Amino acid sequence: MNKQADSSTENHPVKVGDKTPLWTAPSTEGEIQLADILHTQAVLLIFYPADWSHVCSDELPLLEELVKLAGKLKLKTLAISNDSLFCHRAFAGEIGLQSTVLVSDTRHEISRVYGLPVDQDGFGPRATILIDQAGIVQRIKVEPGREQPRSMQEMEQIIQQVREWNGYPPGLENWQAERRNAMQLRRAQPLAAPARLQLRFWGTRGSIPVSGLAHVRYGGNTSCVSLTSDTGHLFIFDCGSGARELGQHLLETAQTDKEKKGIEGYIVLSHTHWDHIQGFPFFAPVFQPGNRFNILGWSNCSQTLASILAGQMEKIYFPVSLEALPSELNFFSLQFNGAVVDGAKLTGRLLKHPLPSTAYRLELGGKTIVYATDHEPHSLPDLPPASTLGDDVIDPKLVELAANADILIHDAQYSLAELVQKVGWGHNAGEVAVDTAVRAGVKHLVLFHHDPAHNDRAIDTILQSARWRAEALGRQNLKITAASDGMALDL
Ligand SMILES: [Zn+2]
Ligand SMILES: [Zn+2]
Question: What pTM value is reported for the model?
């Protein structure tokens, strides 16, 4: 690296509001000259400790996805570590980076010029620096430890900032407004703490609904699970085609309810792939005035949840538009540090999927349910015979989220043999689910998001393999079930 800026920066580390030092360095896109790049765009510097570490392998594709989803931005993302270009190229290929440029800072000179710490093992920091088009440093954030991933919420804020610099109106599609709104339903009376909960599966299939004799036992509707309580709680995880039957059920129960209150609840979306939202236009309670739903989920900064759901209800796809629905619908992009709604603590974590998918932990009435569908392992599992898979395969964020859960609903779309063929498809195998459940100390594991190509017997086999895996780990006491449409679990 040649430093063209004044050499005094090392004694006076760069602060927010300073002009950035101008440096050149080798990258996967040839030599990078910061001065040239800044001419036309803002620059986001993503310092990370090392290629191949699991945090970095997870974080960089997610960041690239966030930037991509934000629309056309005048922004160059440079990811910087002290690895060689050779290593960078192999790493970028392995994790499928397309637009992120990897910069080789072999002697930590770029880190030093910004005053970033290098630890005694020679690893650089995990740090984020945003420089505007005029070359002014607008944000510096150094994570407290190198194993500490960046906050995706902060990354969204950075992207929103760049969108504003690029002239996108800040209120566009109410992205920020969605975040700021209070998430509570305006209930006449707060709900009492429940004594009993029921988890019910209305759709357990992934990708596309299926029907026919080959699927009679497990059912063919796409993802939809409800959690209800004896005191009136209603949480709906995903709105796949199973939501149609759930809607009918809710209307029937409401009719027999003497007080005839409206139906109120939370619709919690893992992500907006079609198999998780396609039942929404057929969810009858939203067609009735007096019913009220808060709809939560992660959305990127260019499209809100509302606009995504409205998209599939445009005239060319569906006769009734989202705006024409007479029920009250409030949309919220979820804060990942969690929220307490109706006395339930809800926490979310983004997991590895082509469109990042959120896993949720819901704690209510002394019980904990974790809904974690649509995610794939960090790397292919090579099952160790008597010990559980490590963080190189299983996302430690999920192990933490599922800690001591009563029920973990986990993606188990594939057999292990299929998983090998489906890297990058965003799904999981029953055996990996078992190791996650064992590491997290879960009581009951529910295998979910069955492959549409699998008949009942194929799902039986996945279930059996999962039970054998639990046995191999000496954990026969882990209860394992394959979810089926109509299945109810009382808690
Ligand atoms: Zn799915
Ligand atoms: Zn998906």
Answer: 0.69
